[in-house]
Design goal:
Length: 328
C-alpha cells in the first residue's frame, strides 16, 4: 500500500506522520507532499528520512498512491482531490471543501464507519469540534433520541494551524496578531472562520450541519457558539442536549462509559473533569460534568474535551485509513 500525506509540513500533517507511526499502518511506500515553499525539507518517518516533494497534478499517478491524507487547505483539496480520485487513490480530506457534498461520506469511525463503503474516491474528515462532539452524542442519540443540541466551544489556537499557534506565542510576548483578527493572549474571540449573513460564523454552521450528516438525522435542532480561547492545544465544549425519551442519569453515564473512543472523567468531589492539558496528545475523547439540565424535561449538560489535532483531525483520518485497509 502506497500512502501519501499532502500538507506534510503543517500542524496536522506532522501529526499524521506521528499517528501513522504509532499505529503502524502497513505502508509499503510513503510520500510527503507540500507546496513549493517547503519542497526539499527533510522529515523523519519510521526512522527513515524523507524529502518533502512539491505536489503537482501527476503526483498521484506517478507514485501510484492508494491512500492520500490531505491537510493542505481548502484550495488544495478542491483542486487535487478529484485528480487523485481519478487515478484510483482514496483521498481522506481534512478540509471543509467536500464535507457537505452528498456524494462524499463524512466519517467518524466510532459513529458511522459503514458510510466509508459509499465513497467515490473522496472521504471527508469532519470539523475538529464536530468529531469530538459526535463521539459523545452518538451513543446517547441511539438510546434516548436527541431532540436539540446547544454547543458552546472553547477552541485552541492549534486549530488555526501554525499561524494560530504563533499568534498565541507571540501575543504572550506582546506582539501583534497575524492570523486572528484580535489579540488572542488573555482573550476569548467569538469568531472562528468567516461570518455569514445570518450572523453565525461558518464554524458554527459546520458544527450544525456536520452533526446532522454524521448522525444521519436532518431533523435535529442544533445551535452553536464557537469561541477561540488562549489555549495552545485541545478543544473544550459545553454541550447541552435535550432528548425525546426519559433517562436515568446513572444509566446515561453508563452508556457513555461503554461508548467506543470515549473516556468518562466525572468525579467532581475530587476535582476530576476533562481538561485540555490532559487530553493533549491523546487519541480519545473525554467527557465529564455530566448533569441533568433542570430547566427542561429530559436534558443534560456535559463537558467534552479532545486533542483537536489528534482525534479532531489526524487520528480520525488515520482511523478511516485503517478501516479502509481492514474492510475494503
Ligand atoms: P508548505 O509548508 O509548503 O506551505 P498549516 O495549516 O499548519 O499552516 O499547514 C498547511 C499545510 O498545507 C502545509 O504543509 C503547506 O505546505 C501545505 N500546503 C499549502 N498549500 C499547498 C499546495 N498548494 N500544495 C501542497 N501543499 C500545500
Amino acid at each position: 500500500m502506497n500512502l501519501a500525506v499532502v500538507g506534510a509540513t503543517g500542524m496536522v500533517g506532522r501529526t499524521f506522520l506521528k499517528v501513522l507511526e504509532e499505529r503502524q499502518l502497513p505502508i509499503d511506500n510513503f510520500y510527503a507532499f507540500a507546496s513549493s515553499r517547503s519542497a526539499g525539507t527533510k522529515l523523519m518517518f519510521n526512522n527513515k528520512e524523507y524529502t518533502v516533494l512539491e505536489l503537482n497534478e501527476n503526483s498521484f499517478k506517478e507514485y501510484k498512491i492508494d491512500i492520500a491524507l490531505f491537510s493542505a487547505g481548502g484550495g488544495t483539496s478542491l483542486k487535487y482531490s478529484p485528480i487523485a480520485a481519478q487515478s484510483g487513490c482514496i483521498v481522506i480530506d481534512n478540509s471543509s471543501t467536500w464535507r457537505m457534498d452528498p456524494s462524499v461520506p463524512l466519517v467518524v469511525t466510532e459513529v458511522n464507519p459503514q458510510d466509508i463503503l459509499t465513497n467515490k474516491g473522496i472521504i471527508a474528515n469532519p470539523n475538529c469540534s464536530t468529531i469530538q462532539a459526535v463521539v459523545a452524542l452518538a451513543p446517547l442519540h441511539k438510546k434516548y433520541e436527541i431532540k436539540r443540541i446547544v454547543y458552546t466551544t472553547f477552541q485552541a489556537v492549534s486549530g488555526a494551524g501554525m499561524g494560530g499557534w504563533s499568534d498565541l506565542e507571540e501575543g504572550l510576548k506582546g506582539n501583534e496578531p497575524k492570523k486572528f483578527p484580535h489579540q488572542i493572549a488573555g482573550n476569548c474571540i467569538p469568531h472562528i472562520d468567516v461570518f455569514l449573513d445570518n450572523g453565525y460564523t461558518k464554524e458554527e454552521i459546520k458544527m450544525v450541519e456536520e452533526t446532522k450528516k454524521i448522525l444521519h438525522d436532518s431533523n435535529l435542532k442544533i445551535t452553536a457558539t464557537t469561541v477561540r480561547v488562549p489555549v495552545f492545544n485541545g478543544h473544550s465544549e459545553s454541550i447541552n442536549v435535550e432528548f425525546n425519551k426519559e433517562f436515568d442519569l446513572n444509566e446515561l453515564k453508563e452508556c457513555l462509559e461503554n461508548a467506543e473512543g470515549l473516556i468518562v472523567q466525572d468525579d467532581v468531589k475530587n476535582n476530576l473533569y476533562p481538561l485540555a492539558l490532559n487530553a493533549s496528545d491523546k487519541d480519545e475523547v473525554f467527557v465529564g460534568r455530566i448533569r441533568r439540565d433542570e430547566s427542561v424535561e429530559n436534558g443534560i449538560n456535559m463537558w467534552v474535551v479532545a486533542d483537536n489535532i489528534r482525534k479532531g483531525a489526524a487520528t480520525n483520518a488515520v482511523q478511516i485509513a485503517e478501516w479502509i485497509i481492514e474492510n475494503m
